[in-house]
Amino acid sequence: MLRLRSVPPLPAPHTTANPGTGMATGFSITMPAISLAPPKLAAKQWLAVYNSGILVAPPLALTAAAAFGYLSFRAGGFGSTAGGLLAGAGISAACFIPYTLTVMASTNGKLLDLGNGRVQEQTAAAELGEGETQPLLGEGQAGEMGEAHVLIGRWRALNFGRALWPATAAALGFAAIFPW
């Protein structure tokens, strides 16, 4: 028989679902579709997704963090197992914001510049001189792949790492509620 721990009746793990689901959708559905577009259009589509996400995800994450913090306080804070798990969930729920501002800053900045038209799209091979070429963005580039596609691929990988923060928050929230 499953017994639930006594925790105030707020759906703690569910509060994290929206940012986590949005990020999971971003790297599993949206970005592969955007990668099919020509580079200039792909950068503009990425920008539209970014602008939508920046309005929704941080407030949801901070709301989830506050809810987990409240639940942690009500469960006894770090003085109890459930309280400690919920506090960890609150911290994890908010950690994707500094992750985005630090780890993803360079890639996001380049994609923002491309999407806003502040820099011109370049191919992955930049001409150096008399017939010599060298990859523009470093290792792993494929011939004439656009810079936007390379950056979107990098962003997808970084976004997967970012999605682990709300997923961790949800896991900790579930662990606090369900006695394993």
UniProtKB/TrEMBL annotation:
The chain crosses the membrane at residues 20-37, 49-71, 77-101, 163-179. It is a multi-pass membrane protein. Residues 1-21 are annotated as: Disordered. It comes from the Eukaryota. The keyword NAD does not apply. The keyword Transmembrane helix applies. GO terms for cellular component: membrane. InterPro entries: Anthrone_oxy. Its main location: membrane. Keywords: Membrane, Transmembrane, Transmembrane helix. It is found in: Membrane. Pfam families: Anthrone_oxy (PF08592). This is DUF1772-domain-containing protein. It comes from Calocera cornea HHB12733.
